Amino acid sequence: MRIRRAAPSDADALSRLARDVAAEPGGWLLTLGTWRSTSDERRAIRLLRRHPDAAIFVAETDEGIIGRLSLTRDHHPSSQHVADIGLMVASGYRRRGVGRALLETAVEWARSSGVSKLELHVFPHNEAAIKLYESFGFEREGYRNRHYRRGQEYVDAILMAYFVTG
Fold first, then answer.
1. Residue 97 Ramachandran class (φ > 0 left, ψ -120 to 50 alpha, else beta)
2. Which H or E element spans position 107?
3. Which are the contacts of 97, defined by CB distance < 8 A and separation ≥ 6?
4. How many folded domains does the chain comprise?
Protein backbone atom coordinates (compact mmCIF):
# COMPACT_ATOMS: atom_id res chain seq x y z
CA MET A 1 0.00 0.00 0.00
CA ARG A 2 1.17 3.50 -0.85
CA ILE A 3 -0.13 6.82 0.43
CA ARG A 4 0.31 9.94 -1.64
CA ARG A 5 -1.35 13.26 -2.38
CA ALA A 6 -4.31 12.96 -4.70
CA ALA A 7 -3.78 13.98 -8.31
CA PRO A 8 -6.45 15.22 -10.74
CA SER A 9 -6.14 11.89 -12.56
CA ASP A 10 -7.50 10.20 -9.38
CA ALA A 11 -10.85 11.97 -9.67
CA ASP A 12 -12.78 9.10 -11.25
CA ALA A 13 -11.48 6.53 -8.75
CA LEU A 14 -12.16 8.84 -5.80
CA SER A 15 -15.69 9.57 -6.98
CA ARG A 16 -16.31 5.85 -7.41
CA LEU A 17 -14.92 5.09 -3.92
CA ALA A 18 -17.18 7.70 -2.34
CA ARG A 19 -20.25 6.49 -4.24
CA ASP A 20 -19.52 2.89 -3.20
CA VAL A 21 -19.06 3.78 0.47
CA ALA A 22 -22.11 6.06 0.45
CA ALA A 23 -24.24 3.27 -1.03
CA GLU A 24 -23.37 0.77 1.71
CA PRO A 25 -26.26 -0.14 4.00
CA GLY A 26 -24.29 0.93 7.09
CA GLY A 27 -24.74 4.60 6.31
CA TRP A 28 -21.10 5.60 6.73
CA LEU A 29 -21.31 8.89 4.83
CA LEU A 30 -23.71 11.80 4.86
CA THR A 31 -24.55 11.30 1.22
CA LEU A 32 -27.02 8.68 0.08
CA GLY A 33 -25.17 7.12 -2.81
CA THR A 34 -24.38 10.44 -4.46
CA TRP A 35 -21.08 12.26 -4.64
CA ARG A 36 -19.40 14.90 -6.70
CA SER A 37 -19.09 14.12 -10.38
CA THR A 38 -15.67 13.15 -11.68
CA SER A 39 -15.20 16.61 -13.20
CA ASP A 40 -16.18 18.33 -9.92
CA GLU A 41 -13.84 16.02 -8.02
CA ARG A 42 -11.03 16.84 -10.46
CA ARG A 43 -11.62 20.58 -9.95
CA ALA A 44 -11.59 20.15 -6.17
CA ILE A 45 -8.31 18.22 -6.28
CA ARG A 46 -6.69 20.84 -8.51
CA LEU A 47 -7.80 23.62 -6.19
CA LEU A 48 -6.61 21.84 -3.04
CA ARG A 49 -3.21 20.96 -4.54
CA ARG A 50 -2.54 24.72 -4.67
CA HIS A 51 -4.05 25.48 -1.26
CA PRO A 52 -1.69 25.27 1.75
CA ASP A 53 -4.53 24.85 4.26
CA ALA A 54 -6.11 21.71 2.80
CA ALA A 55 -5.10 18.42 1.22
CA ILE A 56 -6.45 15.15 -0.12
CA PHE A 57 -4.43 11.97 0.18
CA VAL A 58 -5.11 8.56 -1.29
CA ALA A 59 -4.20 5.06 -0.18
CA GLU A 60 -3.63 2.77 -3.12
CA THR A 61 -2.53 -0.73 -3.98
CA ASP A 62 -1.80 -2.27 -7.35
CA GLU A 63 -5.57 -2.78 -7.57
CA GLY A 64 -6.26 0.96 -7.34
CA ILE A 65 -7.37 3.55 -4.79
CA ILE A 66 -8.69 2.00 -1.59
CA GLY A 67 -8.84 4.97 0.80
CA ARG A 68 -9.16 8.73 1.00
CA LEU A 69 -8.14 11.31 3.58
CA SER A 70 -9.16 14.95 3.36
CA LEU A 71 -7.87 17.69 5.64
CA THR A 72 -9.00 21.30 5.94
CA ARG A 73 -7.64 23.91 8.31
CA ASP A 74 -10.17 26.04 10.17
CA HIS A 75 -10.01 29.57 8.77
CA HIS A 76 -11.19 31.46 11.85
CA PRO A 77 -8.22 33.41 13.26
CA SER A 78 -8.75 31.95 16.74
CA SER A 79 -8.79 28.34 15.58
CA GLN A 80 -6.32 28.15 12.72
CA HIS A 81 -4.44 25.54 14.73
CA VAL A 82 -7.34 23.12 14.11
CA ALA A 83 -8.00 21.01 11.01
CA ASP A 84 -11.00 18.87 10.19
CA ILE A 85 -10.40 15.45 8.69
CA GLY A 86 -12.54 13.11 6.64
CA LEU A 87 -11.61 9.49 6.10
CA MET A 88 -13.05 6.68 4.01
CA VAL A 89 -11.77 3.21 3.21
CA ALA A 90 -13.21 0.75 0.69
CA SER A 91 -15.22 -1.98 2.39
CA GLY A 92 -12.90 -4.82 1.37
CA TYR A 93 -9.88 -3.09 2.90
CA ARG A 94 -11.17 -2.15 6.33
CA ARG A 95 -9.45 -3.50 9.45
CA ARG A 96 -6.21 -3.96 7.51
CA GLY A 97 -4.33 -0.84 8.65
CA VAL A 98 -5.41 1.48 5.84
CA GLY A 99 -7.30 3.86 8.13
CA ARG A 100 -4.44 3.92 10.64
CA ALA A 101 -1.92 4.69 7.88
CA LEU A 102 -4.11 7.53 6.64
CA LEU A 103 -4.38 8.90 10.19
CA GLU A 104 -0.59 8.81 10.48
CA THR A 105 -0.47 10.80 7.25
CA ALA A 106 -2.90 13.31 8.77
CA VAL A 107 -0.58 13.79 11.74
CA GLU A 108 2.44 14.28 9.44
CA TRP A 109 0.50 16.86 7.41
CA ALA A 110 -0.61 18.61 10.59
CA ARG A 111 2.94 18.87 11.90
CA SER A 112 4.24 20.29 8.63
CA SER A 113 1.29 22.71 8.43
CA GLY A 114 1.43 24.06 11.98
CA VAL A 115 -1.79 22.32 12.99
CA SER A 116 -1.90 21.09 16.58
CA LYS A 117 -5.43 19.65 16.72
CA LEU A 118 -7.24 17.32 14.34
CA GLU A 119 -11.01 16.99 14.59
CA LEU A 120 -13.51 14.64 13.04
CA HIS A 121 -17.14 13.65 13.29
CA VAL A 122 -18.20 10.02 13.39
CA PHE A 123 -21.66 8.48 13.50
CA PRO A 124 -22.38 6.82 16.87
CA HIS A 125 -23.30 3.55 15.12
CA ASN A 126 -19.89 3.33 13.40
CA GLU A 127 -18.32 1.39 16.24
CA ALA A 128 -15.38 0.09 14.17
CA ALA A 129 -14.32 3.62 13.24
CA ILE A 130 -14.72 4.84 16.83
CA LYS A 131 -12.54 1.97 18.02
CA LEU A 132 -9.87 2.86 15.43
CA TYR A 133 -9.91 6.55 16.35
CA GLU A 134 -9.73 5.87 20.10
CA SER A 135 -6.91 3.35 19.67
CA PHE A 136 -5.03 5.97 17.64
CA GLY A 137 -5.40 8.52 20.43
CA PHE A 138 -8.50 10.50 19.48
CA GLU A 139 -10.64 11.64 22.40
CA ARG A 140 -14.38 12.19 22.45
CA GLU A 141 -15.08 15.89 22.86
CA GLY A 142 -18.79 16.04 22.41
CA TYR A 143 -22.01 14.62 21.12
CA ARG A 144 -24.01 16.51 18.55
CA ASN A 145 -27.68 15.56 18.47
CA ARG A 146 -29.33 15.70 15.06
CA HIS A 147 -26.23 17.46 13.76
CA TYR A 148 -26.43 16.31 10.13
CA ARG A 149 -29.24 15.76 7.72
CA ARG A 150 -28.88 12.53 5.75
CA GLY A 151 -31.68 12.26 3.24
CA GLN A 152 -34.89 12.90 5.14
CA GLU A 153 -33.53 12.04 8.58
CA TYR A 154 -31.33 13.83 11.07
CA VAL A 155 -28.37 11.93 12.44
CA ASP A 156 -26.19 12.40 15.50
CA ALA A 157 -22.43 12.77 15.46
CA ILE A 158 -19.65 12.24 17.96
CA LEU A 159 -16.99 14.94 17.84
CA MET A 160 -13.49 13.52 18.37
CA ALA A 161 -10.09 15.22 18.49
CA TYR A 162 -6.44 14.31 18.37
CA PHE A 163 -3.77 16.62 19.79
CA VAL A 164 -0.66 16.66 17.64
CA THR A 165 2.64 16.72 19.50
CA GLY A 166 6.19 17.20 18.36
1. left
2. helix 98-113
3. 1
4. 1
What is the Cβ-side half-sphere exposure of residue 36, based on CA atoms within 13 angstroms? 13
We report the CATH number of the domain holding residue 14 as: 3.40.630.30
Question: How far apart are alpha carbons 38 and 90 in whole angstroms?
Answer: 18
Considering only CA atoms, which of 17, 18, 15 is closest in space to residue 32?
Answer: 18
Paired strand residues for 57: 5, 69
Does residue 31 contact residue 18 with C-beta atoms inside 8 Å?
A: yes
Show pLDDT as tens, one digit a residue, over the chain (166 residues). Answer: 999 999 999 999 999 999 888 888 777 666 665 678 899 999 999 998 888 899 999 999 999 999 999 999 999 999 999 999 999 999 999 999 999 999 999 999 999 999 999 999 999 999 999 999 999 999 999 999 998 887 788 989 999 999 999 7
Residue 162 · residue 107 · CB < 8 Å: yes
CA atoms of 20 and 84, how far apart (whole Å): 23
Residue 84's Cβ-count burial label (10 Å; 0-12, 13-18, 19+) is: middle
Give the domain extent around 42.
2-163
pTM assigned to the model? 0.93
